[in-house]
Amino acid sequence: MIGKIKNFFSRNDNPLVSKNIRFSYADEDVLKDINLVTKKNKIYSIIGKSGSGKSTFLKLIAGVISKKHRGKIRIFGKHRFLNKNSFGFVSQEPGFIPDLSIENNIKISGLNYGISEKKALERAKDLMGQLKLNIDIDRKPMDLSGGQKTRLGIILSILHDPRMIILDEPFVGLDFKNRWLLWRFLENKRKEGKSILLTSHLLTEIQEHADKIIILKDGKVFFKGQLEKLKNKLNMNYIYEVRFSWLAQSKWEKLKNYCNKKNGVDIIEKYEKHCVFSLKSEEVKKKLDKKFKTIGLKDNIINFREPNLDEIFLKT
Ligand SMILES: Nc1ncnc2c1ncn2[C@@H]1O[C@H](COP(=O)(O)OP(=O)(O)OP(=O)(O)O)[C@@H](O)[C@H]1O
Ligand SMILES: [Mg+2]
Predict the structure, then answer these.
(1) Rounded to a whole number, what is the distance in angstroms from the first to the last CA of the chain?
(2) What is the C-alpha separation between 91 and 17, in angstroms, rounded?
(3) Residue 54 Cα, ligand 1 centroid: separation in angstroms?
(4) What percent of the chain has pLDDT over 90?
């Protein structure tokens, strides 16, 4: 019993609990049933094809969309309106007040979070140092470059030092150096005990830096976890690229019949005599090589390696 009560409270303190979230725009069901719980001190990255509802989901969590949704959203165990200062939302389009200086934008953002002007300026200066944003705060935000605006948008959204940082495509417009810097910044925040939830299309970088991947598909969470688990789920632990010296239609049909879930082989691509397979294990490769021989196919191995997240994503 005590264990159960403890469990309830620890679950209750999760950065995000979203249960059966459904949301539609006028004529389109965007989120059909999203169930997602995130744990503290981790970087979660939501991926999904363009239009899969990533931004819509983040905006719902942050309370930016006023249109009604179904289901329950809790942030650190509370309704988001009762826990507004526990998270910061960095939207894809930073909401500066264009006619005001950067300094005044900082002061106003601070006031929105109930922070004094002095404190807001101190926090902004510190964050600008961490994100290597060397700008004159007397200027207007619209005078900044794209990458500078992105970093300023992040700073304005986390002046109140929230426990969870939610970012919608924060790497857009940043060059490699600044993307690296932002990943380091987010990793440092994780070390400080913050929870991060972000969206991005930069799959290679996500593979390197995120603790957990969430895939949105058809309005639902298709997958949540680490890359190894995703590879297993999709039977895609290896990529095997082969060029046959000749591939008659009858032999191709036999090979196609062999490539199925039971045998742990899938055909990802075929172009003339060039085939790319995904394999469940090394053992499966040995069996497939034997199959090539039985069918009478002569092969020329081009590649046998682990897949990257881009290739895995193509298969989802
Ligand atoms: N304000 C809106 N009114 C009507 N439909 C919208 C609105 N905003 C988004 N949509 C639609 O909802 C769907 C999901 O959009 P959303 O912006 O959440 O996708 P996304 O996964 O963030 O895409 P991307 O990777 O391109 O940013 C899309 O089909 C989009 O056209
Ligand atoms: Mg989006």
Answers:
(1) 41
(2) 20
(3) 8
(4) 77
Decide if 137 contacts 106 (C-beta within 8 A). Answer: yes
Regarding the beta carbon of 200 and ligand 1, being less than 6 Å apart is answered no
Over residues 203-214, the mean pLDDT reads 94
Give 94-106 pLDDT, tens digit per residue: 789 988 999 999 9
Q: Mind listing the pLDDT tens digit for each residue in 143-187?
A: 999 899 999 999 999 999 999 999 999 999 899 999 999 999 999
- By most ligand atoms within 8 Å of CB, the mutation choice from 23, 25, 59, 222 for ligand 1 is 25
As beta bridge partners, residue 87 has 164
C-alpha 239/C-alpha 307 separation (Å) is 6
The finding on whether 53 has its CB within 6 A of some atom of ligand 1 is yes
Supply the pTM of this predicted model: 0.87
The pLDDT score that the predictor gives to residue 234 is 86
Longest dimension (CA), the chain: 78
pLDDT of res. 2: 57
Residue 5: pLDDT over 60? no
Element at 168 (helix H, strand E): strand 164-168
Q: Which CATH class is domain 2-225?
A: alpha beta
> Is the model's pLDDT at 286 over the cut of 90?
yes
Answer whether 133's CB lies under 8 Å from 148's CB.
yes
Mutate which of 27, 29, 30, 60 for ligand 1 pocket (most atoms within 8 A of beta carbon): 30
Delimiting residues of CATH 3.40.50.300 domain(s) in the chain: 2-225
290 CB-side CA count, 13 A? 7
pLDDT at 8 over 50: no
Residue with tokens 């499966």: 284
CATH (one of 1.10.3470, 3.30.420, 3.30.70, 2.60.300) for 237-314: 3.30.70
Query: Taking the alpha carbons of 34, 39, 40, 42 in that order, is the dihedral positive or negative?
Result: negative
The residues of the chain that CATH labels 3.30.70 are 237-314
